[in-house]
Specification:
Length: 284
């Protein structure tokens, strides 16, 4: 199913919550200067080069406020934009445009920022065969939007939430009594269609995970030399993911190690917004 359709089934309640956060009873400022309906038009302008994501969310904000508002775009999600580009035009009751402006821009700026940052890192992996993954380090109630933006930017989604797959991290391993025990318990409990991934911080843990039959081994916060030894120890018996403080600045060190995935929380928790504005509002 189309990602936008899938998101649409879940996004409305989140967008409404965002609108309710911004308008608890009324928009006092707008009602002061615009007591009656008046059709108007505003331009959506790009103020910074980047990759767009979230245009349909931007539109949906206004549709939920006023179904008569029309938003026409000159670009689609995933398109590159330049500073000064006219992204689109919003037409409708000026009161709805004023009341929805900030919420709509918050979504579009945030999502486009993630897509832009992801695109810049994914470009460094191009041709390597290594997939760039996001993490669960997302803004509460924004995960559906942020993970979509990663895909628009050229990255891939790791598990969406805790129900998606088994990822045995340090505290799970500690609670189970060791890597072997944790993997065995996961195999007994989780459906057989679920892959089992183990987070390993040492070569000893890597060896235990291999022997226990882990499907994916995550090399967490290891040095490059230690990762090289870990890859050799795994010997193709499991897929390999690298994680831990991976950024645009250091990702080049990991490309030639022979791993399958590189995950980075920075894609969602550290991406700056893309500067976009709604300007030149006037009556029509």
């Amino acid at each position: 199913m189309n990602n936008k359709i899938t998101m649409g089934l879940n996004a409305d309640k989140l967008i409404l919550q965002a609108l309710q956060e911004d308008i608890s009873s009324e928009d006092v400022t707008t009602n002061s200067v615009m007591p009656h309906a008046q059709k108007g038009e505003a331009q959506l302008l790009c103020k910074q080069d980047g990759i767009l994501a979230g245009l349909f969310v931007f539109r949906r904000v206004f549709e939920l406020l006023d179904g008569e508002v029309s938003v026409v775009f000159h670009f689609t999600d995933g398109d590159p934009v330049k500073k000064g580009d006219l992204i689109g035009t919003v037409t409708g009751d000026i009161r709805a445009i004023l009341s929805g402006e900030r919420t709509a821009l918050n979504y579009l700026q945030r999502m486009s920022g993630i897509a832009t940052y992801t695109h810049s890192i994914a470009a460094l992996l191009e041709g390597s065969g290594v997939k760039l993954l996001d993490t669960r380090k997302t803004t509460p109630n924004m995960r559906i939007f942020e993970k979509y933006s990663v895909k628009v930017g050229g990255g891939y989604n790791h598990r969406y939430n805790l129900s998606d797959g088994v990822l045995l991290k340090d505290n799970h391993i500690g609670a189970a009594g060791g890597v072997k025990e944790a993997v065995q318990m996961a195999k007994e409990y989780a459906p057989f269609v679920r892959k089992i991934e183990v987070e390993c911080e040492t070569l000893e843990m890597v060896q235990e995970a291999v022997e226990a039959g882990a499907d994916i081994i995550m090399l967490d916060n290891m040095g490059v030399e230690e990762m090289q030894k870990a890859v050799a120890a795994i010997g193709g018996k499991a897929e390999i993911e690298i994680s831990g403080n991976v950024t645009k600045e250091n990702i080049a060190h990991y490309i030639s190690l022979g791993v399958d995935y590189i995950s980075s929380g920075a894609l969602t928790h550290s991406a700056p917004i893309l500067d976009i504005s709604l300007k030149n509002l006037h009556a029509v």
